[in-house]
Amino acid sequence: MGRYLLKRLWHTVYVVVGISIISFFFIHLSGDPVMLMLPPDASIAEVETLREQLGFNDPIYVQYWRFASRAVQGDLGSSLYFRVPAVDLILERLPASLELAGAAMLIALVVSIPLGIISAVKRGSLWDVSSMLGALFGLSMPHFWLGIMLILLFSVTLGWLPTSGRGSLAHLVMPSLALGLSLMAMFARLTRSVMLEVLSQDYVRTARAKGLKERLVIGKHALKNALIPLVTVAGMQFGFLIGGTVIIETVFAWPGVGRLVVQAIFSRDYPLVQATVLVLAVLFVLVNLLTDLVYLYLDPQISYLERK
Amino acid sequence: MNGTDRDRFRNLRATLRLWGETLMALGRSPGAVIGGVLFGLIIATSLFFPWVYAQDPLAQDLLARLAPPFWQEGGSLAHPLGTDNLGRDVLVRILYGSRVSLMVGFASVLVACGAGIALGLISGYYGGRADSLIMRVADVFMAYPFMLLTISVIAVLGNSILNLILVLGLSDWVTYARTIRGSVLSIKEKEFVLAARSAGTRHHTILLRHVFPNVLSPILVLGTVRVANIIIWESGLSFLGMGVPPPMPTWGRMLAEGRVYIMDSWWLVTLPGLAIMLTILSINLLGDGLRDALDPRLRNIPR
Question: What ipTM goes with this model?
Fold first, then answer.
């Protein structure tokens, strides 16, 4: 287990380095920042001087090294538009995004797991067929469109919920539902298929043969084993949630990181775009690491070195 | 007919029989039939609609701005699904939008498939240093949230239909490469590969003739599902204003433009979304059916 952890940590490190290289590359591709800093009528000599001063004439690996060592110290450059450090802006907006993503994940898990279990246990019943059909529809709806439909129904027609902004619980309902529904559909399908597989295993038959109550068989023996793939998939879907918040925050004017990055793109604020992307990607890597640790806790028998 | 020709003929017959069986299995699943027919209809409509409904998607009928669909009061059959804020016909814009979505969906999946298959085959078959390098890069790509990757590239390169296809395709190669690599790892130990090898067949011939045909079915299943995902992402990017640039009508941008008029003109925000949903639903139904028909082991693949 110690070796596995070490390997996993090493994996995290090189992935983060890789991500930082990609991010650095994008900053480079986005054009010459010197041109943005100087007035348009600056002479070539002035441009050259500033380039030299800022180190843009250094070899690219020197420039990357400088970028990386600053990034490690928490300096991801400054926003061209807001003229403050990008990290400050991101940290200010991050709680709102995490709240939204967390709520979406929570809704998805709370609804989908029971749904999937009942479907698996009552396989072929009307309940099973209709909830799986519902899940298929849920998977087929783009979440931003679902968001608009929710606004049309609950805000425009019924007038129950506020259309946009953040604040009360009522503000959170529609964005998190819009973001969470496709996850809910996916988890429900996954829970059902995993449960079906688990329910056909020998230990479940043994548990039933012992005369255990069906509720115990399902709740204790089957569910615990079915949870393992669910945890992995839920962790991996965090990446989807990050992408999803970008659009959903725009639909609902939710003051999070996703909206920040969209605004930054339209104001050509590349340092802010890249800083946000870097922070979110690293966050995603850390969540995946956490997921693996939970996985390890849930299923200590698995020898990871053998599986690799 | 010499020996090789006969072998080839036999091979072809076996392949055809396999495809026939797959089709039969597909035909037994009602979901797959419905999905397949629906998707076929959608493709046919997007290709042939100008012969039936020849309207200009950019023509502005300023006297009929924000007209509702024909069944509602104030609507007319001149614009069956109503008009937008500039008096453009919603139906024909949805139809043109289907071309964009399907084209971007298919083309991106082809790009991703091409890159993923090549890298996956190399990685799985040759192993060694190439394998670990490719898989390290794959890890990094996996860790980079898809949407962020596409957004940051589009932000830098600008949005055009070609950029969109390349970006969506190249961000998505990892899943294919991993799937292929896994299949190749098990296939390359099989007797028929070892036999070909000991008969002196070259590596790239083995890869193309013996390994590649055997990894096609997971790729087909994966590709189908990914077309749906790419279409959703494309509409999302278009919604944000980072997809196919105007004036080409796209479902995502129609929704973004219609959102301003949500208070009075429900059709502008509802109908393009329904078009997306129907398309994705048909692909998903077909994909589920394909997966069950081709490879029941893939049943747990998450989406």
Answer: 0.82
